[in-house]
């Protein structure tokens, strides 16, 4: 065997040893990663089992509550409970509202309406269907509009 061939073979063996060491290091790293992942999976399984137990307990409590308080069987809405007699009598003596007042927005300036078509933020108040604003608006003898 020639000295050049021996040096060549020695270099090849050293390269193979270095490559083998790299592979072994990667193998160890991957083993550690697998162990870590297995621990995480075990932890997640435990948490999942606990969540299932909590869900089961919640459903059992819900069923127990439904047994104690069954839902109404008729399709009709439930009547509210009757007030005590003193409250019912006091409510009966109260009068109905004297006025019903509603408010409507004025027409303002929109398409096709010039500046002289009334006030933009004018409100029309209606009492029992009558225009309260119109009642308060009076025309003087000069033709000017007076608003009270």
From TrEMBL:
Keyword Coiled coil attached? yes
Write the record's keywords in alphabetical order, separated by commas: Coiled coil
Record's compositionally biased regions (Basic residues): 110-122
Q: Where is this region: Disordered?
A: 69-122
Q: Which residues form a coiled coil?
A: 13-61
The domain of life is Eukaryota
Q: Where is the composition biased (Low complexity)?
A: 87-97
What's the protein name? Answer: Uncharacterized protein
Record the organism.
Answer: Trichoderma simmonsii
